[in-house]
Structure formats: structure tokens, C-alpha cells
Amino acid sequence: MNKHDEGRRAFLVSVAAGAVAGAGLAPGALAQTAAPETTAAAPAAAATPVHAHAANGGHGAFLNDDDSATVAALAERIMPGAPGKPGARDAGVLNYIDLALAGAYADQEDFYRRGLAALDAHCRATYGEPFVKLDDQRQDEVITALEQGKAAAFAWPSAQAFFNTVRMHVMEGMFADPIYGGNKDFAGWRLVGFPGAQPLFTPEDMQKGLAFTGAPIIGLQGQAAKG
What we know:
The protein is mainly α. The protein has one domain (about 5-225). The protein contains 10 helices and no strands. Helix 2 (about 25-35) crosses helix 7 and helix 4 (about 95-100) packs across helix 7 (about 160-175).
């Protein structure tokens, strides 16, 4: 992992550590904390539990094969994995985004369609290949262009709005409760030392800065089963 990857991971992990501990377990809380400048407001998180897809690598509710490959590659560059440190692929972020777009975030389907088309148009015009075919360095150059609003292929959504929204959804898929389809095997919570939805925790316990090392991590489904 290069220094650019380390810096990006450190930023997202630090933001997520405060969000999951202080703002609750729902994706909406992470959305408000991770990228307040986005112009595509995310609706409230769905209350209905969602699950991983049995096939197709974690997509098929909304995303087709080509779009899912692009989203997965983009998510992994936003939150890259490393030995012993889960990234977007490890946490099932693609599954989360696909299910969200087919459900609670259905009003953003056209936003994603147009954004993904503009992303590949920018990559083909600049490098002669789509985003998924570029190496890590060039993918990072594309991400920088999106962040700075310098990808000319974008009209609506703007390059910055598209990047900010995808980054927000990557954060949600990494760190929201697994009931929403991401955070596979509590990968994100383990990364930040978050204990999950422990039924006996007090507000003071949840605000402690130390990593949780007590009972097994419990999500919303596990907590409901104990009720």
C-alpha cells in the first residue's frame, strides 16, 4: 500500500470511528458525517433488512455486470484494502450500493447511470480505456480529477457531486450495520474497534475511545434475535 492509499484510508477510518460511535448505526448518520458537501442527498436508510446476493459477486438488484465492475473498482480505490486491513471489496461495499440503489436510494438510480457513463467517457478520452482497465495510479489520477471537478465529460451530475456521493456510499457500505448489506463479517467495525449493537451498553460505554475487546460484535439482527 502506498502513502496515498494510507492517507486515504486513515482519513476515512478516522471519520467513520466518530460516526459509528457517536451518531448511531444507520447509513444516514454516516452519510451526514462523511461528505456534507455532496449535492445528491441520500434518503433515510431502509428499515427492512437486506442480504448479500447469492451470486453475481454481490450485484444484480440494480447494477449490471459492467457498472458493478466499475463501482467495485472505484470503491476499492476510495477505500483500498491491504494485508490485514479490509477494504471496500472485503466489506461487500458493492453489495450494499447495489441493494441501496434498488431500494432506499432508488431516486439516485439515474444519478448513478449518468455518473458511471461520464466516468468511463472521461477515462476513454484521457487514457483510451475505461476506468476498470486503468492501473491504480491512473485510477487515482481520475479520482483526483473528480474531486477537483476537472473531468470535462461530466454535466449532470457534476464530477464532484458524483465522487462525493459514491464516497459517502462507500463509507456507509464499510461501516453501517451489516443488516444493510455491507460491512461483511463486521469488517468495518473491527477496523475501528466498534462493538456493534450491544444491548447492555450505556451511552458512556459507546463514547469510549478504546477499541472494544469484550463480548463478540453484535449487529442489529443479532440484537433482535436476543429480544
